[in-house]
Design a protein that fits this description.
five-stranded mixed beta sheet, 7 strands, Beta Polymerase, domain 2, alpha+beta, about 130 residues, globular
Length: about 130
């Protein structure tokens, strides 16, 4: 099984309700085969799903003090805020594209996130996206 299929499979195993989460970060690029899968997926959440995940996973803090939930040996990271950029998470979740049964944040939001983060890997991902 390839790394992307494994990560998406771990997420599917949680049987989370559509409408309360969306795959963010590099996940929307991975599902479109723009970049290779890394070691983890970042997922934004809200509502009852966020509360449920806090009971199931390992609750820690991001560098900025906001909470995150790590699961499956940090292979999945869930948050209800994100370190880079200013995003309206309800909009990101509400407008997510369902691909292969999973919700992914729309590419225009991923581009904005990666520009705001500006890390070397984000700039590389933006270059690969521009090539496609």
């Amino acid at each position: 099984m390839d790394r992307a299929a494994e990560l998406f499979g771990l997420l599917r195993s949680l049987d989370l309700p559509l409408g309360d989460y969306a795959i963010f970060g590099s996940g929307p690029l991975i599902v479109r085969a723009i970049i290779e899968a890394t070691n983890d997926l970042d997922i934004i959440t809200r509502g009852d799903t966020w509360r449920r995940l806090q009971e199931l996973g390992n609750v820690t803090e991001f560098d900025d003090g906001s909470l995150r939930v790590d699961m499956f040996e940090d292979r999945l990271t869930f948050g209800n805020s994100w370190k880079y950029g200013a995003f309206e998470f309800n909009e990101l979740i509400d407008t997510a594209e369902v691909i292969e049964g999973l919700p992914f944040v729309r590419l225009e939001h991923v581009v904005a996130y990666k520009r705001a983060a500006g890390r070397p890997k984000d700039l590389e991902h933006l270059e690969k996206l521009a090539e496609n």
